Amino acid sequence: MTEHLRTERSQEHPLECGHCYYPIPGEPNESDDGQFCSTTCLEAAEDDSTMPDPGAYKRIVTGIEPIDSLVHNGVPADSFVLLSGDEGTRRDELLSELVWRALERGEPAVIVSYANPPTATLERLFENGWNVLPALENDRLRILDCFTHRLADREQFLETRTKWATFVGETCADAVIEVTEPDDVRSVATNLLGALEDLEMSETGLVTIDSLDELGTLVQDHLVHNFVKDVRATVCKARYVPIVAGATTAGADGYPDEEYVFDGIVDLRLTEELTPGARVTQLGVRKLVGARYLPQWVTYEYEPVHGLVALERSRPAQQSTAADDRNAPPPQ
């Protein structure tokens, strides 16, 4: 992927800065160390502070077939993406697969779980045939447990777990960060930053949040809004670690109504238009700042082990029918 991006850039701009790796728009600043776009970059290179190639960390190929078929050059790594979909669209499986694909790439991941206890969060991965035990053992996975302390009888919950759930709970104990006040968004943000520090997550890995709906049941909407803005700044923008958060369908009946706070919005929908009498799942990218994407719906299916598999695409936006227009999300 990195080589593809660099080849694409070099075709448009033959000269590439030897420090920041971005195209040189005018006459280069030359030295014995190479060619540079500015005096600042030339002096920085002389101080042996060469930057990493931005193509290596500023975009990620998710490994999710329906998404990658629409976003060919990768998702900007400094993005906070809202994954918006109704029940039945496999939103939870998609969040789990994002984590698994990061681990497959050898990158770390953090799961912020409001909807389930840690054992259930991990079980979603096991159910797909994705064994995360080595990742837990190798310290590449963290879970922020924002669920357990909300239980009325936490001790009874722990005592009634099955043998397998008890084993998983004991195995992941060191990887779990218990958030004692999940309704304190500042505490959650602080714990998230602590997990990133422990895993040395900067310019690598990703974070998932399941879900903003559950957070919204604990705090007022403006606090959810502030939480999104804060972690977007401290995690995505400062560290180039993307966050993907699940929520019910955005709009009047869902969270949030202030969609501008997100860098990207991926919509999941159920439709009966393609096959009468059968509901078909589709994915579309409504918004993705800083990236090119196809304005189309991709039909997908879920397969254990393989995850979400893309089928044929629907008509491009310019060829949409009136029925498509009724079901399509608002334009970007």
Q: What letter string, H or E per element, gives the SSE order?
A: HEEHEHEEHEHHEHHEHEHHEEEEEH
The stretches of 5 or more residues where confidence is low (pLDDT under 50) are 317-332
CATH superfamily of the largest domain: P-loop containing nucleotide triphosphate hydrolases
Question: Helicity range of the residues?
Answer: 25-40%
Strand content: 15-25%
Whole-number tally of structural domains: 2
Oligomerization state of this entry? single chain
Q: Summarize this, please?
A:
The chain is of the alpha/beta class and 332 residues long. It has two domains: 2-55, Ribosomal Protein L24e, Chain: T (Roll); 60-327, P-loop containing nucleotide triphosphate hydrolases (Rossmann fold, 3-Layer(aba) Sandwich), CATH 3.40.50. Helices cover 34% and strands 21% of the residues.
Task: Compile the SSE list and pairings.
Blueprint: H1 2-12, E1 29-31, E2 34-36, H2 39-46, E3 59-60, H3 65-68, E4 75-76, E5 80-85, H4 91-104, E6 109-113, H5 118-127, H6 133-137, E7 141-145, H7 154-159, H8 163-171, E8 176-178, H9 185-198, E9 206-210, H10 212-218, H11 221-239, E10 243-247, E11 264-271, E12 280-288, E13 297-303, E14 307-313, H12 322-327
Helix pairs in contact: 5-8, 9-11
Can you offer a commentary on this structure?
The longest helix has 19 residues, at 221-239. This protein has 2 domains: 2-55, Roll (Ribosomal Protein L24e, Chain: T); 60-327, Rossmann fold. It has helices at 2-12, 39-46, 65-68, 91-104, 118-127, 133-137, 154-159, 163-171, 185-198, 212-218, 221-239, 322-327; strands at 29-31, 34-36, 59-60, 75-76, 80-85, 109-113, 141-145, 176-178, 206-210, 243-247, 264-271, 280-288, 297-303, 307-313. The model is unreliable at 317-332 (pLDDT under 50). Helix 5 (118-127) packs across helix 8 and helix 9 (185-198) runs parallel beside helix 11 (221-239). The protein is 34% helix and 21% strand. The strands form 3 sheets. Strands 8-7-6-9-10-5-11-12-13-14 form a 10-stranded mixed β-sheet, with helices on both faces.
